[in-house]
C-alpha cells in the first residue's frame, strides 16, 4: 500500500476524529482514580465517542478474536492491547489507555499513560520519560526529514534514560485505515527511509519499558506484557506533517 498524502478535506476529518480522541483523554485525567475498573474506563470512553458522533476504531478490530472493546486498557506490566474488564485499579498503578475514533471514514489514534493515585518517583519518571520521548520524536516529524529520524529519536531518548524501547510494536501511518503504510519502527539508525512530505499523517507511539524491551503476548490473543514483569508506558499522538515547521498534533487534549 502506498503512503498517502491527505488533502485539506481529509485532514479536516482526521482533525474532527482527533478532537474526539483528545477530549476522551481529557475526561480520563479526572476519571482514572483508585477503585475504578478498566471496564468502567472503557464504558466512559465508548459512550463519549458515540455521543460525539464518532465510532470506536478498535471495537471488533480483526485479530485471533475480534477486539472486544472500544479501548485498550493496559495496566502496569501490560504494554499494549489490554482488554478492559473487571480489573480494579489500585493506588500506585499506572494505566495506559489507547483510543481510536473514526469520523466520516477517517481515523485518529492516541494512547496516554495515567498515574493511579500516588506513584513512586521511579514510576513517575517512567511516565515522564515516555511522554518526553513522544514529544522529542515529534520534533523530527518535519517535511524533508527521513522516516527513521523519528525511530532513532524514540530509541535514543528512552535508552539515555535507562529504559527500553519496545521493538515488536510500531508507529504507523493512519487515515482511511487505522494502520496504513508506512510502518515506523520505534528504534533504529537515523537518516533512512522515505522523506516526509506535507499532508502525511502518522500515529507516533513510543512504548517504553522500565527494564528490558522484550515482550510476550498472553493467551487471550491480545494483551502484550513485558517478559521480565517490569512496568511499561505508552504515549501516542496522531499528527500531520505540515509545509512549514513542526507537525500539527491532531489528537490534542483540549
Ligand atoms: Mg493507539
Ligand atoms: Mg497506533
Could you explain how this protein is built, in words?
28% of the residues lie in helices and 24% in strands. With 254 residues, it is an alpha+beta fold. The chain has one domain (8-249): Creatinase/methionine aminopeptidase superfamily (Creatine Amidinohydrolase), CATH 3.90.230. The protein has a 5-stranded antiparallel sheet with strand order 8-7-9-14-15. Strands 1, 2, 4 and 5 form a 4-stranded antiparallel sheet that branches. 49% of the residues are buried. The model has no long low-confidence stretch (mean pLDDT 98). Residues 98, 100, 109, 111, 205, 236 line the site of one magnesium ion (MG).
Short summary of the structure?
This protein has 254 residues and is of the alpha+beta class. It has 4 helices and 15 strands.
Tell me what the CATH architecture is: Alpha-Beta Complex
- Here the CATH topology equals Creatine Amidinohydrolase
End-to-end CA span: 33 Å
The number of distinct structural domains comes to 1
**CATH classification, class level:** Alpha Beta
Anisotropy-based shape? globular
Radius of gyration: 17 Å
The SSE string, one letter per element, is HHEEEEEHHEEEEEEEEEE
Oligomer: single chain
State the helicity in percent bands: 25-40%
Average pLDDT taken over every residue: 98
Number of helices: 4
* Quantity of strands, as a count: 15
Q: What composes the largest sheet?
A: 5 strands, antiparallel
Bound molecules: magnesium ion
Share in β-strands: 15-25%
Physical arrangement of strands within the biggest beta sheet: 8-7-9-14-15
The name of the CATH superfamily reads Creatinase/methionine aminopeptidase superfamily
Secondary structure category: alpha+beta
Amino acid at each position: 500500500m502506498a503512503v498517502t498524502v491527505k488533502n485539506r478535506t481529509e485532514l479536516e476529518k482526521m482533525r474532527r476524529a482527533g478532537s474526539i480522541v483528545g477530549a476522551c483523554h481529557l475526561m480520563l485525567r479526572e476519571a482514572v482514580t483508585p477503585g475504578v475498573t478498566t471496564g468502567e474506563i472503557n464504558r466512559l470512553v465508548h459512550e463519549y465517542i458515540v455521543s460525539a458522533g464518532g465510532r470506536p476504531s478498535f471495537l471488533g478490530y480483526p485479530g485471533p478474536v475480534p477486539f472486544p472493546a472500544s479501548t485498550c486498557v493496559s495496566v502496569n506490566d501490560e504494554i499494549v492491547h489490554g482488554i478492559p474488564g473487571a480489573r480494579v485499579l489500585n493506588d500506585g498503578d499506572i494505566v495506559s489507555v489507547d483510543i481510536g475514533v473514526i469520523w466520516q471514514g477517517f481515523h485518529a489514534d492516541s494512547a496516554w499513560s495515567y498515574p493511579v493515585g500516588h506513584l513512586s518517583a521511579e514510576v513517575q519518571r517512567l511516565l515522564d520519560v515516555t511522554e518526553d520521548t513522544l514529544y522529542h520524536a515529534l520534533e523530527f516529524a518535519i517535511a524533508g526529514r527521513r522516516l527513521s529520524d523519528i525511530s532513532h529519536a524514540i530509541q535514543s531518548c528512552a535508552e539515555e534514560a535507562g529504559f527500553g524501547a519496545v521493538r515488536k510494536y510500531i508507529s504507523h501511518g493512519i487515515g482511511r485505515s487505522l494502520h496504513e503504510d508506512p510502518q515506523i519502527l520505534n528504534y533504529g539508525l537515523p537518516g533512512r527511509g522515505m522523506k516526509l512530505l506535507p499532508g502525511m499523517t502518522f500515529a507516533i507511539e513510543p512504548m517504553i519499558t522500565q527494564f528490558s524491551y522484550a515482550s510476550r503476548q498472553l493467551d487471550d490473543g491480545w494483551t502484550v506484557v513485558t517478559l521480565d514483569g517490569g512496568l511499561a508506558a505508552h504515549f501516542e499522538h496522531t499528527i500531520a506533517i505540515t509545509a512549514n515547521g513542526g507537525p500539527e498534533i491532531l489528537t490534542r487534549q483540549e
